[in-house]
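Quarterly update from the structural biology core.
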Amino acid sequence: MQLIRSLLIFLATVCSLLSQAQTHVLDRDTTDQQRLQNLAVLEDTTGQWTLEDVRSPELASRFQAWNAERGDINLGFSRSALWVRIPLQRTSDAPANWVLELPFFQLTTVDFFAPNQLPVRTGNALDISTRPFLHSFYAFPVQISTDSAAFYLRVTSDHSLTVPLNLWQEQPFRHHIQNKFILQALYFGGLIALLIYNLFLWLSLKDLRFLLYSLFVGHFGLAMLAGNGLGQLFLWPGQTAFDGIAQSVFLSLVGCFSMLFADRFLRARQHLPWASRGLMLFCSFYLLIAIALLSTLWHGQFKEWLLMGLFVIVLPTGGLVAVAGTMIVLRGEKGARFFLLAWLVLWSGASIAALRAFDLLPTNTFTSYSLQISSAIEMLLLALALADIVHIERKDREAAQQQAIEANQRLLESARLAEERLERAVQERTEQLKLALSSETQLLSQYMRFGALISHEFRNPMGIINSQISLMRKEHELGQLNLEKRLQTVDGATRRLLSLFETWLRGDRLQQAMQEMKPQHLPLAAWLRELIDDQTSYHANHRLELKINRALGDLWADENLLEVAVLNLIDNACKYSNAGTKVVVETLQKPGWVGICVSDEGQGIDTVHHEAVFEDYFRVASESTITGLGLGLAFVRRIVQMHHGKLELQSAVGQGSRFCLWLPSKTSDNRIL
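Predicted structure, tokenized:
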């Protein structure tokens, strides 16, 4: 067993020597080395190993060469202590004094071990005075000999365990520090300019978006100061505990204000309520993480979990804002274009930083500074987005003002036109009143003539009846009563009197019927036959003929009113045609309509009177020898109008007349309901 153990120790020693033999040799022309070769790493999960332990043959053999193609050394979130072995050697003409830089701030402890020198112990858990150089990151002076020598680093971190290493000559290192400070000054100077500008805009416009953007920019700047190690140098020197969580606290607040800004800028509450609720939920998460991280100043529990949660939440929050912004842009909101582009840039940088922190992406200059690079582009684009939306809103206001001016002009023009229309309406109304007064005067005159006519017409039949009664009495006294003759004479006078009464009263009944119209299904053919049969004996001097279209069905109409209309047409046809002539009643049909036509062989009506014959009390002058009141055709027209129908007249002097009532058929969409 002792032999085997000795053999293993020998093999480990050989491996260690072979590993150290792969030394990075520096020559005179090498001023800086951005990525060291032949690095080896050893993870101490216990955190208890010392330099002597890792130099021992047993642990020295467990060092693993770091593949440079993976980028800088990165183990992601780990509670382990990481040992890094750095073999260095120079040529005889190369300088001996160099600087080893570790440009990553979020390291809790950094212990540097150089051959034959005291260890240097520093880190962000210790005061800045422990650093050999007054530098925002960590830099160690090294003396490299012409013989191969191994330098060691022991590193722990509450954040991502990342160990990027650069080797510089002293003078190029100082130039590098100056250039880096100039770049950082430009970056933070731009942030301060954006911050001040947008604060002034908020103060002048009272627009909450500019305040939220200013808070977003301010906290992002503080986060970058903390992440670059400048916060402890300039803002909170000596606050090592806070310095360890400062970047994460400020980034949490950045997430909180970014959610509020996105909700306000996109007007998500109006356009996408579900997205607005999601943004407010993530805002609450970010705020809780910030408060919880601050509480670790008094107790350090769950600190690592909080930091991991901060990186994890970046992906869903960024995705939500990207989706909401895309949907709003697709809806035509032009002001969201720059915002969406800015957010995609920032989200890409934050996603790269999160994936690098979990060792899912290689660690290099780009991935290490992706958040800062993307933030510079994003803030410029957001400034353009705010300027763009202010420009769009100003154009909208100007357009609205122009529309208001045009609307006022249209209103004034409308008022002027309305005034003119009112004047014309007053004039027209005045003319109508004059016409109405004239019509009423004429109507009064017609009523007076009508009263005289009624008086005259009633006197004749009544005189006839009275005289016949007197004759009947005398003949009865003489015993020579001619009853048949006297009764016929009385019957004719009575019929004439009843006709006059019926004509007189129809006007009032028709007005009442307009309020009480009761349409129903009428079997038109049977109804007309019965009506004509009843009229045959009354108009014995004329031949009444009925022609029925057999294809007709029922008709939807008021029976009483339709009877008045048809009887008026039949009465007129018999009245204005010679005895013995024919009066034809026929039914017609065309799409959507049913017609009832009455034709006679009378004297006819001149075409100039075709419209006037339907007016109240109008009578053709040539017809004045025939008794009548001039109301029958007026009744017919009103009844047809009440049924939503049409009235046609075909007539010429000496050629008879043809009146047609066209009523909507039962199946027509125009039927009376």
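The domain at 517-664 is CATH 3.30.565.10 (Heat Shock Protein 90).
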